[in-house]
Design a protein that fits this description.
This protein is α+β, with helices and mostly antiparallel strands. Helices cover about 55% and strands about 10% of the residues.
Length: about 350
């Protein structure tokens, strides 16, 4: 369960500092997993610093989201939060220059792969939020984002690169991330976009809020209302209150618990966290992705947002890669969406 939810570093750190005696075999397994997390996180931090310097030298804009900066802001420790890759958000207008810089820095594009037709790349940029890269020698994964989420109606206001938050990751090293309020809302949207199926994302939210006042929490929620992301933020707050005992401002707590949609989102997230005895990835379970997609529609707080999400779901990113079409025929992706979905379900039946 710890491995599936990617919280080995946090669990081992918590048990050790609380002085809780752990059975020898289980303790050794946890300690080994925590050591892997620590080594990986420190390696990613070093590479993030290198990339930050390269971007600064090239006068290109970037900000890290999650990763080393979140580890320091939430836990004050680089080594205990699991990170699989580096996430950088860049200025959309500079995307071509960013790609050229990454190739010079030793990275190769993985998804979409090299050789993907221009028409498919154009659709990918329109319907997706990032491209995946891998360093040839270091085997480090990198996601380059030009927007923060694939949920069309959420967090689409863009990043103000003039107001980035500097985070000190060592005595002499600083990495830039999103401004505090935007970072918090983004993390809620990111967790909600995955239906919070991994506990580590919710743990980050709780850790960030641990020293925040009731006024701070109300301010975050009010800002989320202004940007149409309040259902994602409300879901996160209610989950933290129920699972970690987070004290919410009384009026806000009552409003969240009165909301049928927020309560349903919370229950759906708990289901996604715990299906398969909380030991199996949600995406490996029957209709796991369907539950996640259903939550996306619940996050839409207006009819326009709901219809926008329907439009977004009418094209599947994997279909673009598995069945590249020339520019004049890309409209067929919408026509083929459901036949291809049924074909995949048929192929995966019984697996």
């Amino acid at each position: 369960m710890v491995k599936r939810h990617r919280v080995a570093g946090l669990v081992w750190h918590g048990l050790s500092h609380a002085g809780i005696e752990v059975p020898e075999t289980a303790g050794q397994v946890l300690q080994n997993q925590a050591t892997v997390v620590a080594r990986g996180s420190l390696a990613l931090c070093a590479e993030t610093l290198r990339l930050q310097r390269l971007f600064d030298q090239a006068a290109l804009h970037c900000a890290q989201v999650k990763g080393s900066t979140l580890a320091m802001l939430a836990y004050g420790n680089l080594a205990i939060r699991h990170a699989k890759d580096i996430d950088l958000v860049v200025l959309d207008a500079e995307f071509s220059a960013v790609c050229a810089l990454l190739e010079t820095a030793g990275y190769e594009r993985q998804r979409p792969p090299p050789g993907t037709p221009d028409a498919v790349l154009s659709l990918w940029r329109r319907f997706n939020k990032d491209m995946e890269w891998r360093h040839r020698g270091k085997n480090i994964e990198l996601e380059v984002h030009w927007r923060l989420t694939n949920i069309s109606s959420l967090a689409d206001e863009g990043v103000d690169f003039t107001a980035l938050q500097p985070v000190k990751v060592s005595s002499s090293a600083i990495i830039s991330t999103l401004p505090p309020a935007q970072l918090f809302i983004y993390l809620c949207v990111h967790g909600a976009s995955h239906a919070w199926n991994r506990l580590k994302w919710l743990t980050d939210i709780q850790a960030l809020l641990a020293d925040k006042s009731a006024i701070d929490i109300e301010t975050y929620y009010r800002l989320a209302r202004n940007t149409g992301t309040h259902r994602a933020v409300g879901q996160a707050l209610l989950l933290c209150a129920d699972m970690f005992g987070l004290e919410l401002p009384p009026d806000l707590a009552r409003a969240l618990r009165r909301s049928c949609v927020t309560r349903l989102l919370s229950r759906l997230a708990l289901l996604c966290m715990t299906r398969g005895k909380a030991e199996t990835e949600i995406y490996q379970l029957p209709f796991g992705t369907t539950l996640v997609s259903a939550s996306h529609f619940l996050l839409a707080s207006t009819p326009h947002a709901f219809m926008t999400e329907i439009g977004s779901k009418s094209i599947n990113l994997d279909d673009m890669l598995n069945l590249p079409l020339p520019g004049k025929l890309t409209f067929l992706y919408r026509v083929l969406r459901w036949p291809l979905w049924l074909h995949r379900r048929w192929q995966n039946a019984g697996k």
